[in-house]
Specification:
The protein is mainly alpha-helical. Helix content is 54%, strand content 7%. About 3% of the residues have low confidence.
C-alpha cells in the first residue's frame, strides 16, 4: 500500500470515528458527512447539466434587454414628431402613433414621449399625444404613455427630402466610354 492510500484510509477512519456531522462542516442542512459526500459526488458527476439553464438564461436575458430597448426606441415620439412652436403632433407623428396603436404586437403597444426642454413643453406633448390617441381609439383601453429622455435616432422628413433631392440632382448623366479603335 502506498503512503497516500494509508493516509486516505486513516483520515476517513478518523472522521468516521470522530462522528463529524454536517453541523461542523459545510454540508447541506440535516446531512451527515457520509450523506454529504455522496451528495457532492453525484452533483459533481452531473456537472454541467444543473447549471446549463442558468447559463442559457444569462445569455438570453441580454438579448431580451436589447429587444426591449429597440421597441422603446421604435415607439418613441421624438423631437421630429412634434411641431416646434405648438408641441402638437405632426402628420408623421400621428402616422407613427397610428402604427404603434394598430400594427405593433399587442404587448408592445406603448407610446414613449420625449421630454421637452421644460415641464410645460413636456405637458403639452403628453396632452397632444393623449388627444391623438383618444381620437384613434374611441372605445376600449388606451395604450400607456411613458416619458423618456432618449430621442429615437433619425431626422425630420424635410431634411431627408432635401438630402435625397440634392443627391439625385448631382448625379452625372450616364455615358458610355468612347470605344478605342483596335488596330
Amino acid at each position: 500500500m502506498s503512503r497516500y492510500n494509508v493516509f486516505a484510509m486513516a483520515l476517513g477512519a478518523a472522521l468516521l470515528i470522530s462522528g463529524t456531522t454536517c453541523a461542523q462542516t459545510a454540508c447541506p442542512e440535516g446531512m451527515s458527512w457520509s450523506q454529504s459526500f455522496r451528495y457532492d459526488y453525484h452533483r459533481n458527476n452531473q456537472w454541467p447539466k444543473p447549471f446549463r439553464a442558468m447559463d442559457t438564461g444569462g445569455v438570453l436575458n441580454y438579448f431580451e434587454v436589447q429587444r426591449n430597448n429597440g421597441w422603446k426606441m421604435h415607439n418613441t415620439l421624438g423631437n421630429a414628431m412634434f411641431d416646434p412652436t405648438t408641441n402638437s403632433l405632426t402628420d408623421s407623428g400621428r402616422n407613427h402613433m397610428r402604427w404603434i396603436i394598430t400594427q405593433a404586437p399587442q404587448d408592445r403597444r406603448v407610446v414613449f414621449v420625449l421630454v421637452g426642454n421644460d415641464q410645460q413643453e413636456t405637458a403639452l406633448r403628453v396632452e397632444s399625444t393623449q388627444l391623438a390617441i383618444s381620437e384613434m381609439v374611441p372605445v376600449g383601453p388606451l395604450p400607456t404613455i411613458y416619458l423618456t429622455d432618449r430621442d429615437a435616432p433619425g431626422s425630420s422628413g424635410v431634411y431627408q427630402t432635401a438630402i435625397n433631392r440634392a443627391m439625385t440632382s448631382s448625379v452625372p448623366a450616364p455615358r458610355l466610354p468612347v470605344a478605342a479603335n483596335n488596330p
